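We examine the record.
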Amino acid sequence: MRKKSDLPTKICPVCNRPFSWRKKWERDWDAVIYCSDACRTLAKK
């Protein structure tokens, strides 16, 4: 098992906070842009 610090991270363009890789994003990590549904909603406004 990997440590959380070893996982890849990205910066959310809406809230400017770092977020790390999740198992549910395994197949489409390259397409993940926002850290949460709330940030995705705010970006569309």
